[in-house]
Every structure is written in structure tokens, then in C-alpha cells.
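Exercise 7. Predict the joint structure of the components listed below.
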Amino acid sequence: MPLPVLKGTLDLLVLRALNWGPMHGFEIVSWLERAANRTLDVDDSALYQAVYRLEERGLLSAEWGVTENNRRARYYSITTQGRAHLRSETKNWVQYAETVTAILTGSKESLTGATT
Amino acid sequence: MIRSDVRRLLTLKLRRRDWEREVEDEIRLHLELRAESLAGQGMPADRATAEAIRRFGSLTEARARLVDAARHREQRMQRVEFWSTARQDLAFAVRTLGRNKTWTAVAVLTLGLGIGATTSVFSATSSLLLHPLPYPDADRVVIVQQQPSKGNNTGVNVSISPNRQVVSAWMSAAHSFQDLEPYDEKDGLMRTHGDPSPVHVAAILPSFLRFAGVRPVIGRVFSASEVAAHAPVLLLGEDAWRTRFGSDPAVLGRAITIDDTAYAIVGVVPQVLRVPSVAAKPAFAWTPLNMADAGRSADVVGRLARGASVGTATRELESIQARVLTRGDGPGVSFTTILLDPSRLLSFRQSLVILTWAVALVLLVACTNVAHLVLARTASRGRELAIRTAIGASSGRVFRQLLTESAALAFAGGILGVVLAWVGVKATVGIRPAGLPELASVRLDGTTLVLTACIAVFSAVAFGVVGAVRTGRRTHDSLKAGALSTSHSRAQDRVRNGLVVTEMAMSALLLVGASLLVRSVIHLQNADLGFDPHGLYAIETGIAEPAQDSANTAALAQDRRNVALELRERLQHAPHVKGLTFSGLRPSTMSFMIGALEAEGGPVPDRNTMAFIGNNSVTPDYFAVMKTRLVNGGTFTDTSDTSPQVIVNEGFAREQWSGASPIGRRVRLDFHGHPGPWWTVVGVAQNVASAGPTEEGSAPLLYFPERYAGRAPALLVRTDGSKDAIAGVQAIVRSIDPARMHPKVFGVEAMLDRSLAQPRFVTMLLLAFTALATVLAAIGMYGVMAYGVAQRTREIGIRIALGAPAARIGRAVVLRGAGLAVAGAVVGLAVAGVAGRVLQSQLYGVSAHDPVSFAAGFALLFIIAVLACVAPTRRAVRIDPLTAIRTE
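Solution:
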């Protein structure tokens, strides 16, 4: 059974996908599915909403291009601002996840270790 | 980054329907790709499509959500784009403006001064002329007055307040008025707190508060029944309450004595409450107006009913008055009722109108100058703009850039203007002469400020646009070789010359106006008044009150007389006192008898022809003490009733006997068909303008022996004018027991000085505006000349190289400047010739077409214009031919 994507993390995942290079919507979805080994359940329309939101904030930019099969598609690429955002948010997310993991599974040592 | 920006610019052009379609396209592609991918994994085609749609979520819902998100995105990105461009433009504008600091400073200063000066004066106009009275529905408020329909040859505009009986009839019968409020004011003596102190008291009906739109601060208004019963109650002014009673609410019910009446305080009214005429004097207290006193008059202010015109209202009042007066016996002179706009009460009105015009001219000159500056600058930047266009800036982008520059300039100028206007208003209120207390109520007017700023900004932006459009048209030429000389087009020269001529014309107009006023003020100061005010003081023991209780009044008059005699006794031997005399009137006041005048041997007047006869009653030494010459005959030799003697002024002599000697001739007065005795003329006194030179001193006047008049006379004291003199006089006056009498000392010289304060103040302001406009015009002239020389550097260089003497080069430049100045001056003087009439009412001893002032205006303008040409001329003469030719 695939896991639903946690609120707020989808943006981060999209940015991560685009960090490889410009992609159109379906490529992003496919990348996510591959990267997560199909353990994440991404609602397709939710992905587009995330993309528009990111573009609005200037973290992505978009342009119309042509796919290998000669079809018109909207390609998204990450901006400098988006890259910076991805870096800092990734750090936050990792720290958060470690802390939560430590609490949930945990020995006191790893707890103090994670918070300092 | 650049690429993505360009791309974003492309998408910006999409209209709503385009990006809606884009969302559709994107969804469709996604579904197709998903279906293909599923089919690739071995799913049958139809199931694959269904699965793709399922995974996308509810399609209609998702589509709406995505379109919404996309719209949101587009709007925001457009906003960001707009502001980032604006920021870029602004930064660029500030940089460009900063590079040319002098130019920017001149432009900003010009705008600021124009906006500042105009806003301060327009604020004064708006507060004093457009909103003179703090009443609701002020546009329908009128002052009701009456004027004699004929027989007024007193030289002053006589208007009287209507009779109370008439006012009562108006109040009950007039339909053209929503409100009619009679009021009265007087100066009284308050005797409650220590020494008696003079206070200003207004009498009103209770409805006056509603009329004025105010409520008592504490307590209540007196009731109609209290008014009818003449109850001694009063409302205290808020200032009086705060300063003299420490804002004590317990003041209600307390009694204060004003003159001889003990009033009970029933309420306190806000200080904004005022009757129309006392802009200068806030009332200390408000008492009920006694309308039953039919013999007396009352001032009246009214509010017209909605839709009623001044014409119909006047006719209605006239017809009601006619009905009332046929019942009793009315005044012997027929009066016309007139309804005045409240701003007419303002003495400063005409001056303010003139100043408003003057400052409007200043604003125009300022705008013209800014237009100039902007035009010259855009022209000289032709190359820069052309290059920017050539390397890819769209014409719209360049246009927007120029607009941003103009806006930045206008904004800076506007800010400076607001500051200057604020300072201007504060300063004007601060230095206002004592004769213009109304100025204290002037406030900076927001609407005016915005309006003025808009005008200035518009001129800056409009000319920026004109310049930009022109430059755009010539873009290609500008880049060709020798572009500098091609951009110097004839059409632009014409516009620029036209602007200079306009500025010069407006300055000439102002210069002529200022010269006229300056000459008028000089005349005022040197005017022969017919008496010598220096060191002259008038002491009044009291102003005669019309009879209410005749026995009491007679006693009071007698007491006043006694005090006057006592004062004379004591002053006679005081140091610095050179002379003493009695006069029925103190200088600057006047008195009229209403009757018919008959000169012996002349036509017998119709007993219904009533005239105003100016008169004064004086003692024989009056003329010597006043230093008024007797041009014919001498002073009274006999002041007894047995041989009534009279002295006339020159004006009277000229009117009655047109030049023939009046000595020995006789005149008599007829009051309502009762002829008086024959008076023999024993002397002719020179005309006296005792209220100051602006008064018509030649109005006919009769001097009777003082003994004849029944009123309390004024004691005139002639001193040597030293500082100790007035102190000595004051000390003696104060020695009179204040409980008995409170005599007032008037400094005649100081009073005359105050009467000159207004013309001097107006002249000073007009001079300041004229100087401002002229300096601005000179800057404009300088700018055009300097620009002209710069444009023709090469040509001049060639001429010099070919051997043209420096003198000829210089002459050409100066002649061009002088030509512009003369053209402007001619236009300005022509306009001044027509518009001078506006000034006539403000001029004394100078005609509005005074050739000296016109010549002065012309000469000043010419000199200033030529001076503005000095620097450009010098630059032209010093052009080095080699450098000039090599520049290109």
C-alpha cells in the first residue's frame, strides 16, 4: 500500500526532481514514482497545483517546449532562488525527521544527540 | 536568467483565455502520457485512459482548481514584473537626475517654489473667501444689510443694520429664508473679577446656536421665554470659561456683572461660535437679544431656504419692510435691503483676489520653466535615447523611463512644495499685521495642495512626454554623423522661444503690478492728511449709548463730560503736552446728521430729500492743535447761540459754492420739516483724512462749535511725540477712579500706521511673488540662451575661425535674448494695460496706467533678461574654434 505524501513535502520533492534538469509535469510525476519506488502515492492534480504555486513564488520558471515525441509541453526548471530554498528546506526536513525518529524510536542518547 | 526573463515577458502577453488553454493543454498531455505509460506496461488502451483519468483525481474539480492556481500565478507574476521594472526605472531616473545636479536642483526648486507659494495663497483664499464663516450650509448664508438709496455723499459706503421691528416682521413672515438671526455686539466692562476689564459681548436669540451648528459645552441655552422676559442670563464663551474660571463646571448659576447688570451664567458655548462680523473679536459672553426694543437696530445674518435666490429673497424682505413701515413712522431716508455674501465683510478681500491672481501667474511661470527644463534636457539626450533604442529598448520602454524621470522630479518638487506651503502659511499667519486679524484663521488647505501639485506634475510629465515623442520620431537621424546640429530643429526653437516670451510676459505683468503698488504705498506714506498725527492722542471717556433710560443717560453723559474736563485740567500742565482740545469725534471716526441742507440764496430743498451731512463739533483751538490749516477765514470767534458760527471743509465749500469765498455765507439744516437756525461760515478748513490716506478726505464736512453737540467729546492731546509723553498721559488717565469711568487712550499715529499695514503687507507679498516669478523667468532665459550657444558651438567656432570679431558674436547672443525679453515685455505690458483695472481699488495716488510703473516694469525686466544672457554670451565669445570644430 503506497503512503500518502505528507503535507508540505510535495513542494520539496518537486524541487528535488527539477534539480536534475528541466522536466514537464508528467516527467516529474514519473521521476517521483521511480525515486520512491512506488511507495508514495502522489495525486496527479495535486502535483500541478504544487508546480504552479512554486512558479508563483519564483522558485520555478516555466517555458513551452517540445518532447522527444514532438509534443508541446510546459517545461519547468528550478531557479537560483528555488535551489537555495531546496537546500535550506532539505536541511530542515532532515533535522526534523531525525528528531521525530529519535523520539519515536528512542534512546535518550540519540534524542539529546539529535537536538543539539 | 536573461533567457528566463525574456520568456516570462513573452508569457506576460498572454491573455486570460490563453493561459486557461495552457492549463487544458497541460492536463491533456499529462493524461495522454500517463495512458501511454500504462499501455506500455501491458494495460489495454481503453482501461489505460480510464486509469489515467482516475489517478488525476476528479477532472472537473481538478481543472477548476488548476485554472484558479494558474490565474493566481499569472497575476502575481505580472505585479512583480511591473514593480521590478518601476524600481529599475526609478533607480535609473535617480541616477540620471543625480548626474546633473544643478539641472535637477533648479527643476525641483522651481516646482517646489511654485507649488508652495500657490498653495499658501490659495489656502488663504479658500479659508477666507470661500469658507468665511463656520456655519453649516455656508453656501446659503447671507448677511442682510441696508443702504441709503440716495443722498449719500459722505465718501464712505454707508450700510446700516435694519430696525428690530422690521427684523421681527421678517422673521415671522419671510419664506425665502430657512433662518434669520438678528444679533448685536458691544464692548462692556466686567466688574466681577477685581479691576473692571473690558469684555466683548454679543447678543443673540437662542436659535442662533442651532443656526451656527453648535451646542453648549456645559449647561443650556437661554430659553425663548427668558429672552421675552429680558432675564439677565448669559452664556459664557469657552475661552473665558477656561482662562477666568479654570474650566470649573460649578460656574453655572454664578453671577457676573457686566456694565451695570448682574447676569446669571446658564451655559458655556464653544469658542467656534461667532457672529459674522467679529472675526477679530471672539465674544467673552453671549446675552439674550432684546427684540422688543423697537427703536434699535440689529445686525442680521440669514440662511436662504433651499432653492431661494438672492433676488427673490431681497424682494420679499423689501415688501415685508414696506408693510411694517407704513404702519409706524419709518426713517426719513429710504433704504434698500441688500444681501451680501459673507466674504464681502472681509476688508482684505480685494487684496486677496489680487494676490491669488499674482500667485497663479507665479505658478504658471514655474510650470513654464519646468517645461523648458524638461524639453531642453530631452533634446540634449537625443543621442543617448537613440542609442538605447538601437540596442533593443522598445520605444514604450524609453517612454516609460522618461515618464518615470518626470514623475520622480515632480514628486521631489511636490514634497518641497508641501514643506514650503506649510512654512508659508505659518509665516504669513505669524507676520500678519495687526490690521488683518482674519489671517489667523488661515489653514493649509489639502484640496488646494493636491490641485496645485497636480498642475505642476502635469506640466512636468506633459512636457516630458512631448519631448519623448519628438525624440522618438528623430531617433534614426540622431545617430547619423553631425547629429548634434540636426537635433537643433527650428520647430523646437519656436517652442522654446515661445515659452521664454510667455515667462517674460508674465513677469512683466507682475513687475508692473508690483511697481504700481510700491508707488501707491509710497504715496500713502507721504500723503498730506490735513492734520499732523505725530504725537497726537485721543482720550475717550465713553461711547455714547442710545437712550434706554433717558435720565440715567443724561447723568452718565454729564459725568463723562466732567471726567473729560478733569483730565484736561490735569494734562494741561503735564510735561511733553503741547496742546489740548475737545472734539466730538476722535480721529478716524465720523458722524452724520440725516436731514436736508439749505445754503442761503440756493434752492430750497424738498423736505423729503434727505442727505447725510458729515459733521464734527470742536472747540476754537481744535484746528491749531490738530495742525489743520484754515485756508480761508479763521476759527470760531463766538461760540454762543446768539450768532451761530460754522466752519466748513474745502470739500463742502467746493460743493456748495464751487470756488467762490464762502466766508459770511449762511447755511441751515432742516430735520423732518423743522428748519434750524442759520449758521454763518467763518472759516474754511483744509480737507482732513483722519482715518488715513485711503479715506476720502474731501467729503463735505461741517464743524460746529463743540458746545452745540450733546455727546461726550473726545479729548485730543498733542504731545511732543517722545516716549515719555504717552506714559505720562496714561498715568494721568489711570488716576481716574476705575469704578467711576474707564477712559480709553488712542494713539492716532499708531492707528494710522495700522491702517497702512494692509497695503504694505499686500505690497510686500506681491513683491515677493514678483521677485520669485522674475528669477524663474531669468532662469528660463538663461537656460534657453545657454542651450542655444551650446547647440551652435560648431557654427560659432567656424565663424570665429573665419575672423568674426568677438564683439559681433557676443552681440548676436545678447540681441537674441533682448529680442525675446522685449517681445515678452510688450505682451506683458499690453495685458497689464487691460488688467490694471483689477488693481485700481488698491491704488492710492497712482493711476492703474501710471507710465512710471510701466516704464519701471519694462526696464527691470529688460535689465534682468540681459543679465541672464551674460554667462551664455561670455561662453560664446570664448569658444575656441579648434576645439569646437574637432568636437564632432
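Discussion. Chain B is about 55% helix and 15% strand.
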